[in-house]
Structures are given as structure tokens and as C-alpha cells.
Amino acid sequence: DVRCRRLGGGLVQPGGSLRLSCAASGFAFYDVAIGWFRQAPGKQREKISFIKISDGIPIYEDSMKGRVAMSSDNAKNSVFLQMNKLKPEDAAVYYCAVDPTGIGEVYDYWGQGTLVTVSS
After folding, report:
1. Predicted confidence (pLDDT) per residue in 66-94, tens digit
2. pLDDT for position 8
3. Which pLDDT tens digit goes with each residue over 27-52?
4. For residue range 10-28, what is the model confidence (pLDDT) as tens digits?
5. Which of 39-68 are b and which e, b meaning 16 or more Cβ less than 10 Å from the residue's Cβ?
6. Does residue 6 surpass a pLDDT of 80?
């Protein structure tokens, strides 16, 4: 089971920050990779970042690089995405997903998504 949620309200002003969490249960947590993705209306889903739990090093894609920080809390089988300096174009449904192979390429298990709105 993969569950993602916002830690805070879903409506953020431009320039604001928001933290997302993702809890993954039913996995050997140290064996997986977890990724963050987003999909805006009318656009393709894009990858934001991922982390191999085994090494704990986040890898960022260009989509939000420099404005996000991904971290993990292995004791809670959870990962987090801290998003800063949010822009209206960051509004999207954000998802976390699990790659059970730990490679970080093919994600078989997806959370339900959480809506982020960036507007003044």
C-alpha cells in the first residue's frame, strides 16, 4: 500500500512552501526505490525525484530541481518531498510511487495522489 498526503493545506501562495509525505507499507523498505511525480491538467506526468532507500541519496530531475528536497524516514517507511518557492505552474496532482526492484526506473505501486494548488 502506498499513501501520499500533504503536510499542510493544499492551497499555497506563489513563493510558498509545502511538504508532502509518502508512506509505503507491505514492502521490504530497504529494497525499494520511491519516486515523486506530478501531473498537471492536460499535461503528461513528469518525474520530480526518486530515492533508493538502500543508499538514501535523492536524485532530482530538472522539473523542480533546486526547489525541492526529498528525504526518507526509514523507521516510518516514509519519504518526504519539501517543495519551496512554489509557482502557479507547479499546480498539479502529486504522486509517490514504489519501484520494488530498488532501481528507480519502473514504478509498479502508486499512491492515490494529492492535489496541490498554487494561487494567490
Report:
1. 999 999 999 999 999 999 999 999 999 99
2. 66
3. 899 999 999 999 999 999 999 999 99
4. 789 999 999 999 999 888 9
5. eeeeeeeebbbbbbbeeeebebeeebeebb
6. no
The per-residue DSSP string of 23-91 comes to EE-SS-GGG-EEEEEEE-TTS--EEEEEEETTTTEEEE-TTTTTTEEEEEEGGGTEEEEEE-S--GGG-
Relative to beta strand 114-118, strand 11-12 is parallel
- Calpha distance 35→77 (Å, rounded): 14
| The C-alpha cell that represents 33 in the structure block | 526505490
Beta-bridge mates of residue 60 = 49
Cell of 4: 501520499
Type of residue found at 13: Q
Q: How does strand 92-99 pair with strand 109-110?
A: antiparallel
User: How far is CA 97 from each of CA 14, 84, 104, 107, rounded to the nearest angstrom?
Assistant: 26, 21, 10, 6
Check if the beta carbon of residue 41 is closer than 8 Å to that of residue 64: no
